[in-house]
Amino acid sequence: MQILDLAVIGAYLIATAWLGLRLSGKQSTVKDYFLGGRDLPWWAVSLSVVATETSALTVIGIPVMSYLGNISYLQLGVGYILGRVIVAYLMLPRYYDGEMVTAYAYLGRRLGLMREVEKTSYQQLYISAFRYCT
């Protein structure tokens, strides 16, 4: 690595730490910390979910593959964003109205607690069996 590379990495780490310290401490409760006080716009929540699920390999690899002429990977990035916008538009209002945090809480409220446990158990069983068979 060159000196310039190390300087850029060091500046990035310092800027990230400074930004974290500058913006921290505005949460007064645990709910504010984990849910942002429930006052974030839907698009910010959607982009946060996309950023959480997207790996660095995806961010670097999709443009490279597209540049090399294989734009089939581009559908992955577009699908992430489009899918999350649809999910955010359909599901987030239900989460906010019901004071829920996860999809499991939504299923529990809609189907009842035992149905939720039973349904997620069957889903895990099917997913595990499918992965084992393929």
Assign a percent range to the helix content.
over 70%
Mean pLDDT: 76
Largest sheet: none
What does the overall shape look like? extended
Poorly predicted runs:
none
Structural class: mainly alpha
Number of strands: 0
Number of helices: 7
β-sheet strand percentage: under 5%
What is the CA-CA span between the terminal residues? 42 Å
- Estimated radius of gyration: 20 Å
N-to-C SSE string, H for helix and E for strand: HHHHHHH
Explain what the structure shows.
There is one protein chain. The chain is mostly helical. It contains seven helices and no strands. It has helices at 3-23, 30-35, 42-53, 56-67, 74-97, 103-111, 113-133. Helix 3 packs across helix 5 (74-97) and helix 6 (103-111) packs across helix 7. It is extended.
Write the layout of secondary structure elements.
Elements (H helix, E strand, L loop, with lengths): L2 H21 L6 H6 L6 H12 L2 H12 L6 H24 L5 H9 L1 H21 L1
Helix pairs in contact: 3-5, 6-7
Keywords:
134 residues; extended; mainly alpha
Structure summarized in a few sentences:
This protein is an all-alpha fold and 134 residues long. The protein has helices spanning 3-23, 30-35, 42-53, 56-67, 74-97, 103-111, 113-133.
